[in-house]
């Protein structure tokens, strides 16, 4: 287990405060957050390139907080990869071994095996300067893994690569992780990357941890509006509690111009007149194209609103609609997504078209201010 407890450090006027999270051995943990939130500083401190002011870092029950980088038994791949341009691929990879004082001849077969596996076995004599972005990434991974490191720290490793290459490397990394039993701490901006690679996630903002949990928990119950935005909750709008029952709340949303019913017994402590932010993901909004509010048939939930299509565009997973509620305050633009495989169930859509949306009562996220 990698265990980080109460980590504090300073870089110029920026302060990282009381960072704590743990990564079970053999799992992958993603450190996410907006640009400049302190992710790289945390990674550099775990790698031993920065000094912690307070707190501790334990790896496999060994306190490594003050050890020099080469004694930490981990590999760090920085954003710029730090490959040596004057060396070829093999020399770069074997440099990792020399740093560890491994006898290179013993490890030669590991170099061959791993580079073959990473698909760069044929490039060992190639100069670093003549590699593509993906080949450089693979070389940096090989250099990190060949000495037998079981903890891999990766700082946005795939951000410079195009989508297809990124996906190929995600799968490769996942397989390597399982095959070699590696523990990974990865900094990323890419939610898809975080959700595909990681088992758990820590969200950092302004140098402090906002939420640290299993990835499913961060996705389904983000801690606050900032985390919700970061984890792709496209629709966040203000509302006021108007009434509450034992297992549901009635909320007035000026943006939609309707009273919504939201089902969640956790929220019933919220008193009438409390201001909240309501969130719902685009894919959870049901769009009905062949009904109007006058002839709206029975839909799965109460929360219906007439809307006008303001914009629509195709995305990888479906059709995105930007919808303006007809009876709202004019400030709310909702994003709805119709999955590609459901497109056959709605008639052709166009800008200016009237639709009816339904917001399932159990799909709301609620954030009290
Ligand atoms: N040596 C330094 N001196 C002064 N300030 C620094 C130093 N290193 C980092 N910072 C500042 O600390 C803050 C956090 O930096 P850090 O690199 O950890 O951010 P990050 O979350 O990794 O961002 P990004 O996602 O853009 O890489 C930033 O405001 C940065 O400018």
Strand-helix topology:
Layout: E1 2-11, E2 14-23, E3 28-32, H1 39-47, E4 54-59, E5 62-63, E6 75-77, H2 89-99, H3 104-117, H4 133-145, E7 151-155, H5 163-180, E8 183-187, H6 191-197, E9 200-205, E10 208-214, H7 215-220, H8 225-230, E11 235-244, E12 248-253, E13 258-263, E14 275-280, E15 286-288, E16 304-314, E17 318-325, E18 334-339, E19 354-358, E20 365-368
Parallel strand pairs: 3-8, 3-9, 6-7, 7-8
Antiparallel strand pairs: 1-2, 1-4, 4-5, 9-10, 11-12, 11-14, 12-13, 14-20, 15-19, 16-17, 16-19, 17-18
Helix pairs in contact: 2-3, 2-4
Protein name: Sulfate/thiosulfate import ATP-binding protein CysA
GO molecular function, one term: ATP binding
Domain ABC transporter: 1-231
Structure description:
- Pfam families: ABC_tran (PF00005).
- Residues 1-231 form the ABC transporter domain.
- InterPro entries: AAA+_ATPase, ABC_SmlMolc_Importer, ABC_transporter-like_ATP-bd, Mo/tungstate-bd_C_term_dom, P-loop_NTPase.
- The protein is α+β, with helices and mostly antiparallel strands.
- It folds into 2 domains: 2-225, P-loop containing nucleotide triphosphate hydrolases (Rossmann fold, 3-Layer(aba) Sandwich), CATH 3.40.50; 233-361, Nucleic acid-binding proteins (OB fold (Dihydrolipoamide Acetyltransferase, E2P)), CATH 2.40.50.140.
- Helices cover 23% and strands 34% of the residues.
- The chain has helices spanning 39-47, 89-99, 104-117, 133-145, 163-180, 191-197, 215-220, 225-230; strands spanning 2-11, 14-23, 28-32, 54-59, 62-63, 75-77, 151-155, 183-187, 200-205, 208-214, 235-244, 248-253, 258-263, 275-280, 286-288, 304-314, 318-325, 334-339, 354-358, 365-368.
- It has a 6-stranded mixed β-sheet, with helices on both faces. It has a 5-stranded antiparallel β-sheet with strand order 13-12-11-14-20.
- The longest helix has 18 residues, at 163-180.
- It is globular.
- Residues 11-12, 14, 33, 35-41 line the site of adenosine-5'-triphosphate (ATP).
